[in-house]
Design brief:
8 helices; single chain; binds iron/sulfur cluster
Length: about 150
């Protein structure tokens, strides 16, 4: 994540790598691996957990932020902002990369502010990507399982 930020500040074109960060949780969830991205790979989650431990005020998140309504609302809001930003790039690669960088860095700043005010990884409790992963995972688990008879 730090490398992504530095490279993107030096050259906005690196912002395009943000798609990996956004797509990876969905990819794993669609492969039936649940929230493995959040627990093992997410650079944002580990950055928040690692660097905010010492400065976090460790307050509990307000209850309303833990409700499904709030998480769904934030997911819809973020998807709308993202779609709006992408629409205004007119398909120009450098603009897409910059929009991605802006989106990633804004959500990281919000995550840091939340992590300092509340517990370090509070962002993860409301993160649209994490919540989207849970929704995909729930749908995947509803699918009938195919059992092969090996006899
Ligand atoms: S909830 Fe979001 S920020 Fe947290 S680990 Fe998962 S994808 Fe990363």
């Amino acid at each position: 994540m730090i490398l992504f930020l530095i490279l993107s500040i030096l050259d906005f074109r690196f912002g395009i790598f943000g798609f990996i960060c956004m797509g990876a949780p969905m990819y794993h969830a669609l492969r039936g691996r649940g929230k493995i991205h959040c627990s093992k790979y997410c650079p944002r989650g580990s950055l928040l957990g690692l660097f905010l431990k010492k400065i976090s005020l460790n307050n509990a998140l307000p209850r309303f932020m833990l409700t499904k309504k709030f998480k769904n609302g934030l997911l819809i809001f973020m998807l709308s902002v993202f779609s709006f930003a992408m629409y205004h790039t007119d398909g120009v690669p450098i603009r897409i990369a910059f929009a991605m960088f802006r989106f990633m860095s804004t959500s990281l700043i919000v995550g840091i502010l939340m992590g300092v005010t509340f517990k370090p990884r509070s962002w993860c409790a409301v993160c649209p990507m994490g919540h989207g992963t849970v929704l995909i995972d729930q749908q995947m688990n509803k699918r009938p399982k195919v059992v092969f008879n090996t006899k």
